[in-house]
Amino acid sequence: MGIMEHLKSPETSSAKLQRWKHRICKYLKSSPVRHAKALLSLMSIIFFAGHAFGKPFITVASTTSTQNSGLYDYILPLFEKDKDIAVRVIAVGTGQAIRIAKNGDADVLIVHHTESEKKFIESGFGTERYDLMYNDFVLLGTRADPARIQTCKSVFCSFYAISKTENIFVSRGDNSGTHKMELSIWEKLESPPPGKGQFWYRETGSGMGATLNMASALGAYTLTDRGTWIAFG
Questions:
Q1: Region of residue 195 (left: phi > 0; alpha: psi -120 to 50; beta: else)
Q2: What is the CA radius of gyration of the chain?
Q3: Listed residue (198, 134, 128, 131) closest to 170, CA to CA
Q4: Which of 9, 13, 86, 177 is the least crowded, having the fewest Cβ atoms under 10 Å away?
């Protein structure tokens, strides 16, 4: 899992407020205010701008897996207390998190798909990439194990058994790091990856927590990262 600094430098609260004041003063000089209501409105803008930009913050685009693991609940209060900087987390799949950062809507990017991370840096969207931590994936199913994946010695054998027996498999289907890992496993099998039209293959288009809930409700198989599974269990 990698952490990347985005090219966009976060603007400080004082800089934002000064920029707004400059714009308002310029407006007043070019268009004299003749009515008290207009002046009151401009005063309100200054007041609310100062209030909104009172405390600096950074935005982190992150995977849902990292959020679901409980890491942010533990570490962010410590960071905010030490640095007096608020942290706003946007938790989505890896693909969407990268798109958010590319659009300039995040200062820090925390995702878990090395190939996509390196491409992000090479394309000039980020300044630095650091290895932050690691996670692995586990294939989950019911105790009944209708596809008998417990007899398999590899994840490829397990995926093949699920597709061969057409037992329900729940996929995130959201272009996240977990979804990318799942697709890479299907692609390495001799049989083609399951299509959306196959009744036993279900896509949630949601985060890991929602996908685990759906798999549990359906008595299905699913691929998840271990951190989320530990927190979920």
A1: beta
A2: 24
A3: 198
A4: 9
The one-character DSSP state at 197 is T
Could you state, in order of their start, the residue ranges of all structural domains in the chain?
1-134, 137-232
**Amino acid residing at 55:** K
Percent helix, strand, coil in the chain (nearest 5)?
Answer: 50, 20, 30
Confidence of residue 1 (pLDDT cuts 50, 70, 90): low
Question: What are 139's strand-pairing partners?
Answer: 223
Q: Is the pTM of this model over 0.70?
A: no
What the block records as the tokens of 38 is 């207009």
Instruction: Say which CATH topology domain 1-134 has.
Output: D-Maltodextrin-Binding Protein; domain 2 (3.40.190)
Those residues whose C-beta lies under 8 Å from the C-beta of residue 120, and which sit 6 or more positions away, are 4, 98, 101, 102, 109, 126, 129
DSSP code per residue over 109-148: EEES-HHHHHHHHHTTSEEEEEE-----EEEE--TT-TT-
Please tell me whether residue 68 adopts helix, strand or coil conformation. helix
Are residues 207 and 179 in contact, defined by beta-carbon separation less than 8 angstroms?
Answer: no
Topology at the third CATH level for domain 137-232: D-Maltodextrin-Binding Protein; domain 2 (3.40.190)
> What tokens were used for 111?
């995702």
99 token code pair: 């798109």
Q: Which two tokens stand for residue 184?
A: 């890479």
Q: How confident is the model over 19-37, as pLDDT tens digits?
A: 544 554 454 455 544 433 3
Identify the CA nearest to 223 among candidates 164, 161, 143, 158: 158
